Amino acid sequence: MSGIQFSELLDDTHEEMTRWKQWFERNSSALDLPIDIAGAGTVRHLVQHIFSVELYFANIVLGLPPANRGSLAVSSVDELSRIGEGATKKYRQVVAKADSEDWLQTIDLGPRLNMKPR
After folding, report:
1. What dihedral do alpha carbons 59, 45, 21, 51 form, nearest 10°?
2. How far apart are CA 87 and CA 47, in angstroms?
3. pLDDT in tens, 88-102
4. Is 89 helix (H, G, I), strand (E, B) or coil?
5. pLDDT for 25-49, tens place per residue?
6. H-type helices in the chain, by residue range?
7. Given 30, 34, 82, 109, which residue has the most CB atoms within 10 angstroms?
8. Rg (CA), the chain
């Protein structure tokens, strides 16, 4: 069967995240620009939302409790990036340990949470 492997998707995501991190390091004031996307209010809160959702699902797949979104540090580009990098690292753990039976499992994602940015 042809297609993309999940590990390849993670590699692509990491590469894109690295590009955005470098851009935000050069243009950090852009994080505080106002936006009207998903009620985020600022680019920083939208990025926080995207990465915290990734971390939420990575924790669920690993059987860990969801991260407390309010406790995630987001005051710098490095802090924001660590959220996304942490999710990717956890997904890589899943890929490394999963066997063919694991990929057939259904995981209860629990009730839909209000993941609106603060």
Report:
1. 10
2. 13
3. 999 999 999 988 888
4. helix
5. 999 999 999 999 988 999 999 999 9
6. 6-26, 43-62, 77-97
7. 82
8. 15
